Amino acid sequence: MAEKSEFSVSRRGVIMGSAATAMAAHAPAEAQGGRTTMPADPGLMPLTLKVNGQSRALSLDPRTTLLDALREHLHLTGTKKGCDHGQCGACTVIVNDQRINSCLSLALQHDGDAITTIEGLGTPEAMHPMQAAFVRHDGYQCGYCTPGQICSAVAVLDEIKRGIPSHVQADITARPQATNAEMRERMSGNICRCGAYSNIADAMAEVAGVEA
Ligand code: FES
Ligand code: FES
After folding, report:
1. How many domains does the chain divide into?
2. Residues 67 and 79 in one domain
3. d(Cα 19, Cα 60) in Å, to the nearest integer?
4. 147 and 127 in one domain?
5. What is the pLDDT of residues 122-141, one digit of tens each?
6. Hey, which of 92, 193, 199, 200 would you mutate to test ligand 2's pocket, going by the most ligand atoms within 8 Å of its Cβ?
7. Which residues lie across from 45 on neighbouring strands?
8. Are residues 212 and 130 in the same domain?
9. 136 lines ligand 2 (CB under 6 A)
10. What span, in angstroms and rounded, lies between the C-alpha atoms of 116 and 129?
11. Domain that holds residue 127
12. Predicted TM-score (pTM) of this structure
């Protein structure tokens, strides 16, 4: 039997460690410098998230992920839980203009942050251009990955516009372009089990105003 490395880290361990760090950051200033020990039951912690332009005050167990805060506490179920392990991208939301996997982040770490979910991008009556392009190009089948794909796609075009480089650029110092290869590389963290990738790429190309 293989010996367990003393450096092996479990996901639960990482989450618990992050929760402790987030709690420490929220502890009263006088407690942070002293020898205050972590209570056995951490109880609920107050935080405020700015979700889709609205300030939402919450009181959560510090181990609550941002994904669960959105889905279970704010009832914004557009954001999907696929793997809950940072592997599929279904839970992608935009936080302070950056896309993240909300299943890998604790809600408490986002106190005061501006969060955009699929519900905040557009509505069926007034769709975001990326949502409309996904519809036109059939960028989905079952639709489960779609909210994450769309949030990611919107953030990807914004990243390219802001000149943030990626691994597929031949010259990392050159301004990135919204090429098919570039967009596919940047979308590689969003998995679609239905395989709608080429239609998603077409939708993104249309919004970017480039050849598919
Ligand atoms: Fe977050 Fe899969 S649910 S990456
Ligand atoms: Fe079904 Fe992507 S549309 S998983």
Report:
1. 2
2. yes
3. 12
4. yes
5. 999 999 999 999 999 999 99
6. 193
7. 60
8. yes
9. no
10. 15
11. 122-212
12. 0.83
Q: Minimal CA–CA distance to 70: which of 18, 117, 131?
A: 117
Instruction: Give residue 179 CA to ligand 1 midpoint distance, Å.
Output: 26
Residues 6+ apart with CB under 8 A from 145: 80, 82, 88, 89, 90, 190, 191, 192, 193, 194
> Residue 64's closest CA among 102, 26, 98?
102
- pLDDT, one tens digit per residue, over 74-101 is 999 999 999 999 999 999 999 999 999 9
Under the phi-then-psi rule, with left for phi > 0, alpha for psi from -120 to 50, and beta for the rest, what region is 157?
Answer: alpha
What's the CA angle centered on 196, arms 194 and 197, to 5 degrees?
125
Based on the fold, state whether residues 206 and 136 are members of the same structural domain. Answer: yes
Residue 32 confidence class, pLDDT cut points 50, 70, 90:
very low
Domain boundary among 92, 121, 150: 121
Q: Which ligand is nearest to the CA of 144?
A: 2
Residue 17, classified by CB atoms within 10 Å of its CB into exposed (0-12), middle (13-18) or buried (19+), is exposed
